[in-house]
């Protein structure tokens, strides 16, 4: 495997050509994307494509989102550094790692056991300590540590009522809403009486599913 040093230039190009060029301008997000070693979160056979402008397979029928979408969603959360964030859909742990550099603590749920195990290994290798992982049905949220300042969902579907319940007043829920691979990012902010919502980018995500898959 190439040394980590060999990936620095591709990572810099990713930030300048894919992120800055498309309007990602939050300095903290750009720094996180420049720092987190994306190649550690994909199979070694795909490491040479880790910083390309595309999603990549990570096994179990799931994907790691393209760098732009990770950065875009991270920026939309408007994190300042003190927050506690719930992530629904850990996947291989890359978005988790980026978030961990932007907030105080990340609580992340993955329903597929092999991916949960892989994410734990990846995050340990990348030395991200302010993360708690759980293998469970993400639609149920994580009541033990609620309420959260923000909840980010990395699978496409429709919001669970539980998520808004587990948000702090003023907190943000960000998810790709829709079905059949036809999704749109929706940002909801919890208010005293309901929530405000903003419809954003069209996108495509793997489907949000119920239950836990241990195999």
TrEMBL record:
Example GO BP: protein repair
GO molecular function: protein-L-isoaspartate (D-aspartate) O-methyltransferase activity
EC number(s) per entry: 2.1.1.77
Protein name per UniProt: Protein-L-isoaspartate O-methyltransferase
Source domain of life: Bacteria
Major location (coarse): cytoplasm
Function: Catalyzes the methyl esterification of L-isoaspartyl residues in peptides and proteins that result from spontaneous decomposition of normal L-aspartyl and L-asparaginyl residues. It plays a role in the repair and/or degradation of damaged proteins.
UniProt entry keywords in alphabetical sequence: Cytoplasm, Methyltransferase, S-adenosyl-L-methionine, Transferase
Catalytic reactions of this protein: [protein]-L-isoaspartate + S-adenosyl-L-methionine = [protein]-L-isoaspartate alpha-methyl ester + S-adenosyl-L-homocysteine
Gene3D superfamilies given in the database record: Vaccinia Virus protein VP39 (3.40.50.150)
Gene Ontology CC terms: cytoplasm
Active site location: 65
Family under the similarity heading: Belongs to the methyltransferase superfamily. L-isoaspartyl/D-aspartyl protein methyltransferase family.
Keyword Cytoplasm among record annotations: yes
Keyword S-adenosyl-L-methionine: yes
CDD domains: AdoMet_MTases
Alphabetized InterPro entries for the sequence: PCMT, SAM-dependent_MTases_sf
One Pfam match: PCMT
Subcellular location: Cytoplasm
